[in-house]
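User: Design a sequence. Structure:
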């Protein structure tokens, strides 16, 4: 997968009992998951993200609330994605700049293809621009 795109996982259940969504390594996830993290209690006036990754791939879900991703890929294409359904996320490949806005009580869940390493981050937008030229 080469571009940022919505990614659906099956929602099992019904409104009378509730729902479950399952993610399985290399089965319905397009990479081997090496790290899982979640962010929460992010103030609504804070914009998070502000970075890209050199090699990391991610699947990101809003398990609660609404999360807005403003992305820019390596071709300069800008796109906005709204996450507001726990079974519908976005796939983010490497070399995609992102800025993220959270609603009150939003919880972001991320499945990542690599363990954390600071060297994989591009934290300066000008450096990102130079890298993709």
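Assistant: Done.
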């Amino acid at each position: 997968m080469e571009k940022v795109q919505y990614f659906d996982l099956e929602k099992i259940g019904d409104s009378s009992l509730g729902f479950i969504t399952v993610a399985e390594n290399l089965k319905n996830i397009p990479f081997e998951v090496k790290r899982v993290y979640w962010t929460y209690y992010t103030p609504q006036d804070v914009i998070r993200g502000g970075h890209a990754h050199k090699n990391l791939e991610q699947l990101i879900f809003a398990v609660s609330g609404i999360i807005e991703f403003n992305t820019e890929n390596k071709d300069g294409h800008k796109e906005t994605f709204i996450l507001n359904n726990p079974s519908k996320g976005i796939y983010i490949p490497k070399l995609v700049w992102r800025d993220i806005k959270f609603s009150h009580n939003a919880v972001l869940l991320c499945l990542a293809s690599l363990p954390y390493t600071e060297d994989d981050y591009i934290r300066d937008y000008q450096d990102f621009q130079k890298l993709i030229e």
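The chain has one domain: 5-130. The CA atoms of residues 118 and 132 lie 19 Å apart.
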